[in-house]
Amino acid sequence: MALAFPNPLPSSLLLLLLMMACSTSAQTYRNQSMGSSLTAKDGGSSWASPSGDFSFGFQRIGNGGYLLAIWFNKIPEKTIVWAANRNNLVPRGSKVQLTTDGQFVLNDPKGKEIWGADMARSGVAYAAMLDSGNLVLATQNSVYLWESFKFPTDTILPTNTIGQNGKLVARYLETNYSNGRFQLSLKSDGNLVLQTRHFPLDSANHDYWSTETVGSGFQVVFNQSGSIYVAAKNGSILNMISSYAGSTQDFYQIAILEYDGVFRHYLYPKRPNISNSTSWPSAWTPTSNFIPPNVCHIMEDTGGGACGFNSYCKLEGHDQRPRCICPEGYAHIDPDDERKGCKANFIQQSCNESMPETDLFYLYPMQNTDWSGKSDYEYFPSQTEDWCRNACLVDCFCAVAVFRNGGCWKKRFPLSNGRMDSIMGGKALIKIPKDNSIFKPSSADSKKKDRSTLILIGSVLLSSSVFFNLLLLLAAILAIFRFDYFKPKVLQTYPVMPGMNLRSFTYEELKKATNGFKDELGHGAFATVYKGTLESDHGKPVAVKKLNNIVTQGDQEFKAEVSAIGRTNHKNLVQLLGFNNEGQHRLIVYEFMSRGSLANFLFEGSRPKWYQRIQIALGTARGLSYLHEECSTQIIHCDIKPQNILLDDSLTPRISDFGLAKLLKTDQTRTMTGIRGTKGYVAPEWFRNMPVTVKVDVYSFGILLLEIICCRKSFEADVQNEDQMILADWVYDCYKERKLDLPLGNDEEAMPDMKRVERYVMIAIWCIQEDPSLRPTMKKVIQMMEGAVEVPVPPDPSSFISSI
Questions:
Q1: Are 181 and 339 in contact (CB under 8 A)?
Q2: pLDDT tens-digit map of 381-412
Q3: What is the pTM of this model?
Q4: What domains appear along the chain, each with residue ranges and CATH number?
Q5: Which residues are part of the catalytic machinery?
Q6: When you count CB atoms within 10 A of the terminal residue's CB, does the N or C end of the chain come out lower?
């Protein structure tokens, strides 16, 4: 009997419908219909965009309440880009709902409304989280009645715009999303400004940066090509705020007015790192477009400036983030909020003329530091520093004296708009007690009162039997003290250098840590580096550098040089952890850099990303600038090259081997490349008996910058064209002939960013000028790299040779 098979068409159709049903049920996104809601709880659900790039829902903030927010959902850092209730976190169990009557509201667990979408008209049919990061409420015909892009908090995303009277308000702190102290506003007159706010009021106080587009600015645009600019009504660009070649196809991008008052543009690759295809980068990477470039120079008519009263602002770290620091003798009012300002840890100098207390105070010097003229109350021109010091010491109203170019300014409390910067010049003299006592009598009257009280108490005790009980108690305390005093003292387990956090290791400790100096990381003419682990520090990995042929065998001289290195503190320097100087041994212990050297990163394996190389170049420049201009003792590195630039887990560059020049024999600091006298890493001064200054490091950085741009070594003998052997010569020739695409090779990421490439090449050419006086300082190099200063056309680097 023949079997009857069913018609195949209905079966196929059924299978297709089943697949569609499975696919639909697996999706985490859809238009949210009337009655849809989300509840605040750990691990709660959210509304995702179609691609899954963004999600909308509740995020718990620390150990506190919940923020109704939009965030990046595909990367480990769930970066929040918009928040509804930033000033009022809600507890667990709160609910956001698209009600059946078309309202979009956030209620606490008791039903109290915390926030609601402000819509001009009704007719909402659904809510949707879009791939642009925009949350919308729309009609049945997809007309947007409300969208989060129209109400930004502190962040804008590509395709977002800010119209006239629109603004971004910075959060209060990095982890506190409530309204903070700064805002970015496009005024009704078309001028885009950064302003301080009358915190805690919701009003502007003082403009500290402007695009100067009064009368023409229509909107702020963040386009899909990664450019942020002020546009006129006809769409023309009036002021380019930030521009980066990476498109939104390759990078997630945000621009955020951060809690420190700086507007920054950030990137995050949409694909994992090339070097490790299974992992994402560790954090967002800022572009070089910081606005303003130095927020520390805010000068308000009222208020404390970028930092609070009695503190000072200083740029630190690879991204030059402003830090608010207390002067010597002062402490933060709130350790968790450094921008609240500082308070004195001592009682102020007495104004009692019979007991002026002049001898109890001294003036602590701080270079390149000042507070605004609002704190000034007297000025004396044409004076000496000693005169200025004495004038402040004898004046009970004087909290700080500032001496600059023969002028003496007296300042009183509160000190406002403080900043420390090398461009300030001069010296601030901070009045603090000699013993730095927190509590001390402030007048002769109080001292007399204390003495009288003691006499009275003594008289009462002597006239009563309590006196004898007190004698017994004192005798017991004395006996305990004598017993404790003569006990053998426990030696400090880990000796440290006085006044510093540097451990003094024994040679046996380091020998054990390095497994007998077997795991070699690298070696050079004057040292060998070994990898080690410190058992005493939970197996912490370290790098141990064993120095050979150092200048001195003396403990004190070696310690002095090591302490100079140890006092440095910058994100772009390798941190010194300790040392050993037993007998003939001289070893230095550094933190271990997991990603190895820049030489390995540039010249081995695949070509690094262009944006990564840009950040490495900037970070290295900032580290050198710190060594040259910000250290208490100026440090000339003398050996800048890719092998001495190390990379940490997040590819932050760390300069190593700085400060070692003084520990080496003279001839060792003059290390030559194989092509002596040509444009290698060594500056020409070494060969001409000219004074060696920080400009030798500038020269080496110029060569290094060319290597970073072109991803090739400064000298390569195995090339077909001899004109390309010396990188500096070849790049300069290409620059003159407008053929900079040649040394870039097939760098598809750098090619679209040729304006930046040309700028960096011009900076490098200025750095490698044969005449040291023509080379810029590293601070100027940073300004040119960031675009804050124009780069003039450089001359032929070798023109100095032909003129001598």
A1: yes
A2: 999 999 999 999 999 999 999 999 999 999 99
A3: 0.55
A4: 32-176+243-286 (2.90.10.10), 312-433 (no CATH), 503-591 (3.30.200.20), 598-802 (1.10.510.10)
A5: 639
A6: N
